Amino acid sequence: MATHTGSATADNVVDVLNDLIENARDGEYGFRTCAEEVKSPDLKRVFTDRAAGCAQAASELAQLIVAHGGKPAEGGTATGAMHRGWVHVKGMVGANSDESMLEECERGEDAAVARYRKALKQDLPADVLAVVERQAQGAQRNHDQIKLLRDQARQRS
Q1: What was the pLDDT predicted at 143?
Q2: SS3 7
Q3: Where are the domains of the chain?
């Protein structure tokens, strides 16, 4: 087990990581749902890749949680459930244009980036901080890519 710095406690570290694991699962589900709903083969590939990246992030976080004596959280969050519900409803009413799916994914990535920023403000051990920083950079890259694709879809419509 890593040496804790400052006032970090094992429980606090596990709480921060469990928040991020729920975040990753929400992202995985949201991207997978968008991949199922979107028409463009290119966007299907992007969303499928992003879903796989979120699943990998959740797995990595779960390993850290166990290493720090915790139990990985089950499922996602209430906000994530609303996000998933929105994507599902959007698809059912036929409003699932590429642009609307990208807008919803961008909204999800905004939330993900915010949760990583919140986590990075916590007092975390070096091993945990390194993983959280790397995943935060990935979430920012995802956000920026989705925003760019959304801007391109807007220009086409």
Answers
A1: 94
A2: coil
A3: 10-156
- Structural contact between residues 75 and 84, judged by C-beta atoms closer than 8 angstroms: no
The token pair that represents 97 in the structure block: 């244009």
* Pick from 52, 64, 61: nearest CA to 27: 52
139 in Cβ contact with 20 (< 8 Å)? no
Q: pLDDT, tens digit, for every residue of 74-121?
A: 877 667 766 666 666 565 555 658 888 888 888 889 989 999 999 999
Identify which of 24, 130, 127, 136 has the alpha carbon closest to the alpha carbon of residue 66: 127
What is the model's pTM? 0.85
- And the tokens for 99? 């642009």
CA 104 to CA 87: how far, in whole Å? 7
Q: How far apart are CA 142 and CA 138, in angstroms?
A: 6
Using the Cα atoms of residue 33, residue 36, residue 37 and residue 39 in order, give the sign of their dihedral.
positive
CATH superfamily, region 10-156: Ferritin, core subunit, four-helix bundle (1.20.1260.10)
Residue among 79, 69, 63, 52 nearest 21 (CA):
63
What does the block give as tokens for 10? 């094992």
